[in-house]
Design a protein that fits this description.
alpha/beta; Rossmann fold; Dehydroquinate synthase-like, alpha domain; 6-stranded parallel beta sheet; 3-stranded mixed beta sheet; about 10% strand; binds fe (ii) ion
Amino acid sequence: MRPMRDFDYYMPTKIRFGPGVSSKVGEELRALGGKRVLVVTDAGIVRAKLLEDIAASLDKAGISHLVFDEVEANATISKVLKGSELQKKMECDILLSIGGGSVMDAAKAIGILATNPGPLTDYEGPEKYDNPPLPTVAVATTAGTGSEVSFGAVVFDEERCYKLSIRSAMQIPKAAFLDPLLLKTTPPRLAAATGMDALSHALEAYVSQSSTFITDALCRENFRLVGRYLRRFVADPSDTEAAGAMLQASSMGAMAFNTARLGIVHAMAHPLGARFSLHHGVACGILLPHAMRFNLMACPQRYIDVAVGLEGYVQGHLEMGRACCAVEAVERLLADTGVQVDFSSTEITEELLSTLSDETLSSGMQRTNPRAVTKEDVMNIFRLLFQKG
Ligand SMILES: [Fe+2]
């Protein structure tokens, strides 16, 4: 039991869940007062024809729309600026993001630039801009990021090869649509990567020094859902029950980390993902076992809860042995879902390790990590990751 401390919990997003619920996007935007919407998405979503029913709902609600479909896998500042120009030129009064984390984060950033002078890089960190952004509504097409209910937006700064994180409760979407039918064409590799992201959010929030009784409950349900449904979802993304469960796990992870914050996995995953062009969920997934082993001694009971949540039971007489079961459960998930990266042909220099570790610590995300972490610690965890191959 951790010491009781004061906290605030705030989650203003209206969540609409259900197979086919995205056909109600138009009515939601109209209720929010939107008349001209900028739809922020990516080309893959357009190709998969995920826009069609939603566009029909916009027409039905009498809302004109314009599509900006140029967001890439890692939302870049240049694409955000392009979307922002379009929003201003067409005087769109509301934003609709349809996609995964990059798309949702790009829409949040476009919303910030609609009402704040910029540049975007000035807003890195918590509560760095003054004016409430243009309202956004988010339709999730992946189950992992939880950006549809999160205070954060991560944008890739191409010039610095750096992921900047902008955080404010003002940019959280007004409404989030979780429609399992939109996930049925998810490539299994993406289903696996995003699922590991969803798990890593809850895992970091659960062991965080800022965890609360509300975030703990959200995390424990995330572990149960991921343990029960991630493999099933990866095996068949058209399995509506599994997709729905993973969407819920994903949102719960973000609803937890909004308050509880994250830890060294995300602090390390951002520079790792940026340097090696890894999907964010893959970067988090491969880091998890190493970071968990490092953190284990700080809060073994918490990791026992993780193991019980993921696998339903835990064996062993010694506390640390039972806590280790959480690491093994995550390693089994990674192996079963094929989340792995082979670094054996990559030259890893001490200089690179040092740079990655400096970037890790500059994020500040390690501040809520359950165990204090030094640069040498981070370098050692990266060494273990790269050795593993
Ligand atoms: Fe994440």
